[in-house]
Each structure stands twice: as structure tokens, then as C-alpha cells.
Write a structure and sequence with these properties.
This protein is an alpha/beta fold. It folds into 2 domains: 107 residues, Alpha-Beta Complex (Aspartate Aminotransferase, domain 1), CATH 3.90.1150; 241 residues, 3-Layer(aba) Sandwich (Aspartate Aminotransferase, domain 2), CATH 3.40.640. Helix content is 39%, strand content 13%. The strands form 3 sheets. It has a 7-stranded mixed beta sheet, with helices on both faces. A 3-stranded antiparallel beta sheet has the order 9-12-11, covered by helices on one side. Strand 3, helix 5 and strand 4 form a beta-alpha-beta unit. The longest helix has 22 residues. It is globular and about 70 Å long. The protein starts with 14 loop residues before the first strand and ends with a helix.
Length: 361
């Protein structure tokens, strides 16, 4: 991955360990964006009408990237807006299962609508908690993040498949914002019914774009009331035949934002998602092993067989200042330092960050 680093000028300023907050803009995408806006500058409405085809092709790029049917994909400005639209079509008496302290945009939309909700802790025994909950309560929907935004706690994909096999009527809704782009992923094989994500983090697609992927069976179990001219493809005579997924696309979609998503999906595919996954797993294993040996990871994370690309560290002894002085770019979430590494990071950079942490202990 070393040869790709020149695409990311921010990497010349220090160690970028903050993809969980924002993925980086890269030179190839910048060049495409400049060309797009130059076309708009000189083409006006003519260019914009022609760009409708570009947005439509974004569906196909997503279909190829995640192994999902094109008609089961919806483009949305971000994960949060999409989930709120979806929940307008969910039965009001649905019983919901959520993770304690999950990302607010996962839990809040359910809580604000007054659904009956049960919670389980995202700890080393998460799967046992869920099995027990489902054995004792009738749950309609389980909604969760594939990777937790604060500390990188990662859902077991094999467990989700088992869950769906035993409880086929249970609707699984996943937030993939901190997962998609960091790991290779096959939606058709996942057992997940609904997966949504914003594109500005690990997919490196910039802001203002996101998507939802749907199990084709879901359209038989719920209906979406949202509607608008764009949902018909600009064909008023098709109002009664709007596809399920297009209910999330009631208005116009920006060719700049969704063209950026298309470009990044294809750019990442050329790099190779299996290559990216392998590299990221190496970075994760190096950080996880070192932090575990230092005793600074939370106990609930130690027994998990897999971890996400995010790590949470206690900021005691002036660690935040030490990292900043060394040129490490990071975030602070939940009163702790959050570090996150992507394929443009190197193992040497991870080692340097780990050494800085070790000095402060």
C-alpha cells in the first residue's frame, strides 16, 4: 500500500489516525471533482441532465462492490436520514433490540418513536446476551453498528448468519459506516436485511453521500410512505409502480456527491478490497496486541476474536498532548482518545503511535 500514500497529501503533515472521524480526500478524486464542476461551469443544465446517468450508474457500482441487486439499493445523503425514512414504514408495535451506548443515530430514531425497546451490553458475552434475549422475548428488529464508533468493538458476521438462520423473521438492520471500506463485505451472504452507511469515512467518498442495501424479501414485510418526483425516475405515470428502494430517493440526487461515491468505489476496487482488508487486519492486530500487552484496552474487548480499526485509550498522564506534539491526528470520544487506522497507514506508523503511548504509561 506504500505506493498509494502519495495520493493523500495529509499524510505529509503527520500520522493520520482519524479515519473514524473523516476519511481523506485523495488526488485522483480531487481531479475527478474538478472536472465535474468544470463541466457544470460550461454546460449548465445540459450537463446536469446528462449527469442523471452518472447517479444511476452509482447504483451499479454499489451492486458490484457489495454483491447486491441494483434494484435493492437506495442512495441517501447520509445514514441517519435514511434510517429515519425507513422507520416511517416500520409497524408501530414492533419490538426493538438495541445495543447499549451504540451510535446515537442508530438508537435515537427508534427511541424517539416510542417503540418498545430492549437493550443488551456490547461486551465479551454479547452473543450470549442476544440468544437469551430472543429466547425470552418476541423481538421484531435488531439494529446495531457493525463496528462501534467509540472503541472499535466489532460484530461477529458469522454470528449474524446464525442469528438469521434461527430467527428468519427477525429484521437485522446494520450501520456499516465504520465498517464499509475498511473490510471486504458480501451483503448477499451476510444475513443482514438492511445495511446503511455514510460514504465519508472508510469509503473515502467525501461528504453528502450514503446508501442503503436491502434484502429483496424486505419489501414484502414493510412499506415506505416517502415519495417524490425523483422516485418515479421523472415519470409521473409510474407513481403507482415506485420500487421499494426508490422510496428513499424522493428528490434529486447530487451528481457531485454521488459521482464521488461511484468514483471511490471503483478506485477502491482497483486497489482491491481483499488487499485493503489484509493490510487493515495487519494494522489492527499490531495495535490490538500491543495495547493488550500494555493493559490499556477495556476488558470487554480482550475476549473478542475480531476487532475493528478503531481503538480507545484513556488520556491520562497528558497522552493527548504528547500525541498532538508528535504530529498524530486523532479524535476524542467518550472522554477517551480515539485512534483509527486505514490502509494508507503503515505498520511503522502504528508502531510509532504505540511507542508514544507506552512512554506515557
Amino acid at each position: 500500500m506504500e505506493h498509494l500514500r502519495k495520493q493523500f497529501p495529509v499524510l505529509n503533515q503527520g500520522i493520520y489516525a482519524d479515519t473514524a472521524a473523516s476519511g481523506l480526500l485523495y488526488e485522483d478524486l480531487l481531479e475527478w471533482r474538478q472536472g465535474h464542476d468544470l463541466d457544470f461551469l460550461i454546460g449548465g443544465s445540459t450537463m446536469k441532465f446528462e449527469s442523471f446517468d452518472l447517479v444511476d450508474k452509482t447504483h451499479q457500482s454499489l451492486a458490484n462492490f457489495f454483491n447486491v441487486l441494483q434494484e435493492d439499493i437506495a442512495l441517501v445523503p447520509n445514514f441517519s436520514l435514511g434510517l429515519n425514512l425507513i422507520l416511517e414504514g416500520l409497524h408501530k408495535d414492533s419490538r426493538i433490540l438495541l445495543l447499549e451506548e451504540d451510535y446515537p443515530s442508530v438508537n435515537w430514531p427508534f427511541e424517539s418513536r416510542g417503540y418498545p425497546i430492549s437493550y443488551v451490553p456490547a461486551d465479551a458475552n454479547l452473543e450470549d446476551h442476544i440468544w437469551k434475549m430472543l429466547a425470552s422475548e418476541s423481538v421484531s428488529v435488531f439494529a446495531f453498528s457493525l463496528v462501534q464508533w467509540v472503541d472499535g468493538f466489532r460484530m461477529d458476521l458469522d454470528f449474524l448468519k446464525e442469528l438469521k438462520l434461527k430467527y428468519p423473521e427477525l429484521i437485522l438492520i446494520a450501520d456499516g459506516t465504520q465498517f464499509c471500506g475498511a473490510f471486504d463485505f458480501d451483503f448477499a451472504e451476510s444475513g443482514i436485511d438492511v445495511l446503511g452507511a455514510s460514504g465519508y469515512k472508510w469509503l473515502l467518498a467525501g461528504y453528502g453521500n450514503g446508501f442503503y442495501l436491502f434484502n429483496p424479501e424486505l419489501k414484502n414485510r414493510m412499506s415506505l410512505p416517502s415519495i417524490g418526483f425523483n422516485a418515479t425516475g421523472g415519470r409521473p405515470d409510474k407513481k403507482a409502480q415506485i420500487p421499494f428502494s426508490r422510496r428513499l430517493e424522493p428528490g434529486h440526487l447530487d451528481s457531485f456527491n454521488f459521482g464521488s461515491l461511484k468514483f471511490s468505489l471503483e478506485w477502491l476496487s482497483k486497489v482491491g478490497m481483499k488487499n485493503i482488508t489484509t493490510h487493515n487486519e495487519q494494522l489492527i492486530n499490531k495495535a490490538w496486541t500491543t495495547l493488550t500487552d500494555m493493559g490499556v484496552l477495556e476488558p470487554r474487548l480482550k475476549a473478542r476474536k475480531e476487532h475493528g480499526p478503531i481503538f480507545s485509550i484513556d488520556p491520562k498522564r497528558g497522552l493527548a498532548a504528547s500525541l498532538s506534539e508528535a504530529g498524530v491526528i486523532f479524535s476524542e470520544r467518550g472522554g477517551r482518545i480515539r485512534l483509527s487506522f486505514h490502509f494508507y497507514n503503515t505498520e511503522k506508523e502504528v508502531e510509532q503511535v504505540m511507542e508514544l503511548i507506552k512512554r506515557q504509561l
